[in-house]
Amino acid sequence: MKKIGVFLVFLIAFSCVSVKNPDIIVVNKSPTKKQETSRPKLVIGIVVDQMRYDYLTRFYSKYGNGGFKRLMNNGFNFKNNHYNYVPTYTGPGHASVFTGATPKTHAIIGNNWYDKYEDKYVYCTGDKNVLPVGTLNKAGLMSPHRMKTTTLGDENRLFTQFKGKTIGISIKDRGAILPAGHSANAAYWFHGAKEGAFVSSSYYMTDLPQWVKDFNQSNTAESYLKEWNTLYPIESYTESGVDKNDFETGFKDQNFFPYNLNELKNLEKPFDIIKATPYGNSLVTDFAIEVVKNEALGKDEYTDVLTVSFSSTDYVGHNFGVNSKEVEDTYIRLDKDIERFLNYIDTEIGNENYTLFLTSDHGAIDVPSYLKTKQIPAGYTDKSKIRKKLDLFLKTKYTATGLIKKISNNQVFLDKEIIDLNKLNKAEIEEVIVDEIITYNTIYKAYGSKTLQTTNFTTGLEYLVQNGFNQKYSGDVVFVYNPNYISYNKTGSTHGSGFNYDTHVPLLFYGNGIQKGETFNKTEITSIVPTISALLGVSFPNGSSDKVLSEALKN
Ligand code: ZN
Ligand code: ZN
Fold first, then answer.
1. Is 396 a catalytic residue?
2. Residue 342: C-alpha distances to residues 46, 310, 338, 499 (Å)
3. What is the mean pLDDT of the chain?
4. Is 213 exposed, middle or buried (0-12, 13-18, 19+ CB in 10 A)?
5. Could you list the residue range(s) of the whole structural domain that residue 455 is in?
6. Rounded to the nearest whole angstrom, what is the distance from the C-alpha of residue 525 to the centroid of ligand 1?
7. From the CA of 360, which ligand is nearest?
8. Is the model's pLDDT at 10 over the cut of 80?
9. Is residue 530 within 8 Å of residue 542, measured between CB atoms?
10. Per annotation, catalytic residue among 88, 90, 135, 285
11. 355: domain CATH number?
12. Based on the domain organization, do 341 and 421 belong to the same domain?
């Protein structure tokens, strides 16, 4: 301690001298300037799953100075940043952030979707051609093979002759795999169930590194099977609704604090409950620190890319809803985890050696049954009723059955064989469906695929629908529910629409090469990686937007 003190005194004395001596000023300044303009040693892309923009402002007074506020006040804050496509789900969200493209181009058109070529439902990161690693469970059968374009990490790998590493981590497989991209060194996700371990697949490796095995064998995950109570007195949580209410699902019928996770856990899958509490984010933070330490990220001249997705916010939001005390507490605790992570990176890599961005994969809707009690137009719709009604209508009109093969993610997939067999015209059927479905009381908009292929929409919901429409993989008619209408349980929040509650998400840049500032100018999620690519001087991901948010970058 004494030695540091002496060194500090020397430093202060030296800087005092330097101010008076112009020659020393020059010597002193140039390393600082060089640091500012050199490439960062580490890029960290953080996605907070289901984080609405207003969680930054609504809970602002509850945050400490070292987490969200540090990024907001010392970085660049894009306050009007939106998703520019539908559907706003986790798979497409993570793919879009890191490819800088929309489903129209990267082809992750949902979390799950009906694949017309394989004639079955597929999962965005599911892959039967790989083997699980670190588990025998099918939770390991995952890869990014359905994503058709490159990520920031891929381009950085190519640029550095594969010397710069890319690693993706998350509780959710898709939250780790899609951000990391195709050429990643590793992606790790949490398999709860009875195992409670971070796992991977043979797409990346044949065996887990020893440090991951050690982490899994430490009782870190188990240590979170404890009580979850509010971090601060619950009376101080004035930014959210009452704790006991009718709009939350809860654990085993309990929807109020405190939760005893050891009692509430599912005995078949004891570790799963961690995912649905703020402790899932703490566990990811613990693991993120281990990744940086053991993979020596940010330690050499080749820039590394680390992607971290915090998924527990999404589970909590689905379970308890946007206005719940549980969501508020989860964000207060995430703020602390982010602070802990940043402090570690500062010490390990140096404040000036990394660039970070933080965003979300989508927002979330206030629970419609709650909105209804406040006289705000909102409600629920039933997918299967829409399907039945449409089937009956087409059967009557064309005296043919089975014209609709599937309805998946608000897209109608027609059966081309049956259309041909009945000598019908597909384009005409699309328009007939549009005219019919728009009369249903929970449907707000509908478009045929021909319209989406031949019209260039530049604003409004049409623009978002078009950006989410992939000519090769999407269906033949796309429809949109009314604002504040969802096909979901009557408790808890969800997401997926093109309305502001789902599209408006935080975008914070921080660190090396980033200007301090903020703007209300509208930005799109697909501009994030072009901006980081520009900062690094690497090629933009191959399907990405070409818009660089240059106001965030230092000259
Ligand atoms: Zn999500
Ligand atoms: Zn979700």
1. no
2. 12, 15, 6, 33
3. 94
4. middle
5. 382-441+443-481
6. 14
7. 1
8. no
9. no
10. 90
11. 3.40.720.10
12. no
